[in-house]
Prior knowledge:
By secondary structure, the chain is an alpha/beta fold. 21% of the residues lie in helices and 33% in strands. The protein has four helices and ten strands, in the order ββαβαββαβαββββ. The mean pLDDT is 90.
Amino acid sequence: xxLLRTRLALSLDGFIADRDGKTDWLTAYPAxxxxxxxxxxxxxxxxxxxxxxxxLRSDAGGRWPYPGRRCLVVTSHSLDTAPxxxxxxxxxxxxxxxxxxxxxxxxxxxxGGARAIRAFLDLGAIDRLDLAIVPYLLGDGRRLFxxxxxxxxxxxxxxxxxxxxxxxxxxxxxP
Length: 175
């Protein structure tokens, strides 16, 4: 059974991007990439929102940065000129989560953005949440956790201090 996982970096004040959606402030912290290659080795499928997909394509000059991995883009519109492994998901997210758990080899990375991650959290569909807390204060920007009326407990799996003062926290769904 596949696990649905989220892994991302955020500023100490809780932002995943600046006001314009950019993450270039992370380039000063190369240790954020530590562990990404081994993490990606466990990932066979990606799920992301449309804005994240568009930003990834734009940042990579139109190339797809995750070749060879299936990607589902949660969107309400078709995807023009998408790479072969990328497909739109227009349906119910609970159905998607159940389908991915039951029928996917390897784990699933719910990449982002904040709206997609929040939607999966609200469904109780995120099995593991890994956060790299970067010692940088953005002051304003796009928050990881959007407001929601649905709460829930998580259980800490591990906490590690890394290079550059980055703290990585790993949580799992509480039983």
